[in-house]
Amino acid sequence: MVLEVTAKDLTIKDPEKQEVFRSEKNWFEIGVDMDRDMRYGAWQIKETIDLTLPPKQTQKEDYLINFDTDTEKVEIEANLWYYLKGSKGDIIHSVKETISYETD
Amino acid sequence: MKLCTMYRVLIGLTCLVFLSAQSGIAKEAESIDELVAMFDESKCAQCHEQIYNEWQHSWHSKAIISSLGGMRNFIAVGVAKEWNAKLTKAEVLKCLDCHAPTVNYASEKLAVEIGEMIVTAFDKKGTPEGDKAKSELSRLSVGCLGCHNVKATSVARGLRGAPVAGAIYGPNGNDSDGHESIETVDLSRSVFCMQCHGVYKAPDGETIKCNTLSGSYQNTYMNLGGSETCQDCHMKKGHLFPGGHDLETVAEGLGFNVEITSYRHLPGKVYGVKDSTKWVPSVVINAFVENKTGHRIPDG
Predict the structure, then answer these.
(1) Which is nearest to A97 in space by CA: A74, A67, A81?
(2) B290, A3 in Cβ contact below 8 A?
(3) Any chain B CB within 8 A of the CB of A37?
(4) Judged by CB atoms within 8 Å, which residues 56-95 of A form the interface with B?
(5) N or C: which terminus of chain B has fewer CB atoms within 10 Å of its end residue's CB?
(6) Inter-residue contact B179 to B167 (CB < 8 Å)
(7) Is the reported ipTM for this assembly greater than 0.90?
(8) pLDDT digit string (tens) for chain B, length 300 residues
(9) Pick from B82, B274, B291: which is nearest to A53 by CB?
(10) Which of B190, B217, B289, B290 best probes binding to A when mutated, by most A CB atoms within 10 angstroms?
């Protein structure tokens, strides 16, 4: 599961250069064998290093983003991705907001 | 003397029949056809059509063919190469006791054949040989009798005894023309699901960690006062048992709240901007991700 937060500076004309901030928080586990070497096989994994989100728990992630002084409009997007297997992910929840700034 | 011998034979036969009924084992199947016939689940659909249809669309109905890669690796890499051991029914059951519980009633020879078919189905995928093996394996799964008979008494074996052959265990125990019904709360308890949806402990002591759901359920969720069962959430759609494959279920289990606060940072306080005399457009984002389920996320 991944929390992906991006910020786009909509003042920039080229869409490919608009993304000025990206952060990803990943919840996952690492399976290890008796020597604490990482393993994938169910028969090899004897312990796990648990970096998942525990039940009945809320985790908070904070971000402070400073844009450039000529930025007039930004788009903030936060997506919660769930990966069932490998690289195939689905967006479970999404929030998008546009902010306009007064320039001096 | 003749009468005495006859009595002995009669007593012996009675004991054999009794023990056979107690253990629930009629015989060991020598082929997949025989095994499927012994636990003929198509009969279930005749009276329980809706439940059967739900199950057919569940991952339980595809419990072998959806996990071929992992099981193939266990057999071809784990057992054969890492352990340098012979494939036996005991080794095969380290996967299939959960992925196809009826294999407990297969002969040693058949169980090994099924194990070899798993390797063939995966390694020769797309070839006639591989497709035939997969097709045969698709007849085995976590079926009706896997839960409602074979595994029904496993979590309290001392108290409940071995499953009675042919009987259907369930929470209501309603009589049926088609089968003997035995009422049990066991199938409604989380510990029933935890037999397989957690760390599997084989009879020889080997631990198999396909997933660890039961660990976080028991040691975190319940420890924090949680009291819902696996069935409370995962049987909301009946025997479809939605979980991680169902995005609606995943979304229901995850809370997501994002607060976005824009402001302007003091001039001269942010390094690297174009004009250090100007206010700096800024934003603070607070994202809250809540696990509302009874187990950790992600888990399998």
Answers:
(1) A74
(2) no
(3) no
(4) 56-72, 74, 76, 78, 80, 82-84, 90, 92-93, 95
(5) N
(6) yes
(7) yes
(8) 454 455 554 444 443 333 333 345 558 999 999 999 999 888 999 999 999 999 999 999 999 999 999 999 999 999 999 999 999 999 999 999 999 999 999 999 999 999 999 999 999 999 999 999 999 999 999 999 999 999 999 999 999 999 999 999 999 888 788 899 999 999 999 999 999 999 999 999 999 998 778 899 999 999 999 999 999 999 999 999 999 999 999 999 999 999 999 999 999 999 999 999 999 999 999 999 999 999 999 986
(9) B291
(10) B289
Q: Which of B217, B256, B295 sits opposite A93 (nearest CB)?
A: B256
Q: Give the tokens for residue B261.
A: 């606060």
- Contacts from B61-67 at CB under 8 Å and sequence distance 24+? B61/B141, B61/B142, B61/B143, B62/B138, B62/B141, B63/B98, B63/B99, B63/B100, B63/B141, B63/B142, B64/B96, B64/B99, B64/B100, B64/B118, B64/B137, B64/B138, B64/B140, B64/B141, B65/B121, B65/B134, B65/B137, B65/B138, B67/B95, B67/B99
Which residues of B fall within a CB distance of 8 Å from A62?
A: 284-287
- Decide: pTM greater than 0.95: no
Given B70, B244, B291, which is nearest A42 (Cβ)?
B70
